[in-house]
């Protein structure tokens, strides 16, 4: 890591491809991701876990509180250097998700949250997840629901996304890779966030997107409402998946 500037390690920039904690105007997305980590952390208890596509590392660090060991994998060297420096509870490794640098049947759990939509070879990645998991190992994954994230579009709104998925498409991909889906859940706004949706013209997300695209200053009320969001403001359950914001799949090797 000697060729990486210390300033890069200490503070990862916002790129649109990952979210980071501690930034007021980014807090909605951070909490939306955190809600899924909190839901799934208990499934990593005493397990050997790979977070494939760890990003800033806050999720891997959360999981490390109950797992036996967490390997946090990312392709970007600045990111893995940041994770190694900030989160000593995890083992940060640079590697390609298309060829996971782990032995066959080495892990109890592979977690990849908000990752698969960024990948060109989604089938190849899931095959690699199956390879490194032990028999009956768990795959925990989340991804934006294409029906609500980029509704009615052939190409994703987010330029970092290569292919977004519906619940049916995600389930089919997992089955093709040899996984059995035990639960398919949907994340959506709870009562407090629905009230904020109403206060911002029907959609708190759309209000943020408009400001981001405009490039102007954030309205004080919008910034305050975004900064106040907490992980428990999101509801996660298995009803009406097509209406959910994010999909969360809990799968095991068949």
């Amino acid at each position: 890591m000697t060729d990486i500037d210390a300033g890069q390690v200490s503070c990862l920039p916002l790129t649109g491809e990952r979210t980071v904690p501690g930034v007021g105007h980014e807090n909605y997305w951070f909490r939306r991701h955190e809600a899924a980590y909190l839901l799934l952390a208990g499934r990593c208890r005493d397990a050997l876990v790979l977070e494939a596509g760890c990003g800033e590392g806050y999720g891997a660090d959360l999981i490390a509180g109950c797992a036996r060991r967490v390997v946090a994998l990312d392709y970007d060297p600045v990111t893995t250097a940041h994770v190694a420096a900030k989160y000593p509870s995890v083992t940060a490794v640079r590697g390609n998700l298309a060829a996971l640098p782990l032995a066959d049947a080495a892990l109890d759990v592979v977690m990849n949250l908000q990752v698969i939509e960024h990948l060109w070879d989604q089938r190849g990645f899931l095959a690699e997840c199956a390879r490194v998991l032990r028999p009956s190992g768990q795959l925990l994954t989340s991804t934006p629901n294409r029906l609500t994230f980029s509704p009615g579009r052939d190409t994703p709104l987010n330029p970092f996304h290569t292919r977004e998925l519906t619940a049916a498409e995600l389930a089919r991909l997992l089955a093709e890779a040899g996984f059995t889906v035990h639960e398919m859940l949907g994340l959506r706004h709870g009562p407090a966030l629905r009230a904020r949706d109403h206060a911002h013209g029907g959609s708190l997300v759309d209000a943020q997107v408009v400001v981001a695209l405009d490039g102007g200053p954030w309205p004080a009320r919008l910034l305050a409402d975004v900064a106040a969001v907490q992980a428990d403001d999101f509801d996660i359950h298995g009803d009406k998946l097509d209406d959910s914001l994010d999909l969360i799949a809990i799968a095991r090797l068949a």
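The chain has one domain: 6-189+239-253. The longest strand covers residues 133-144.
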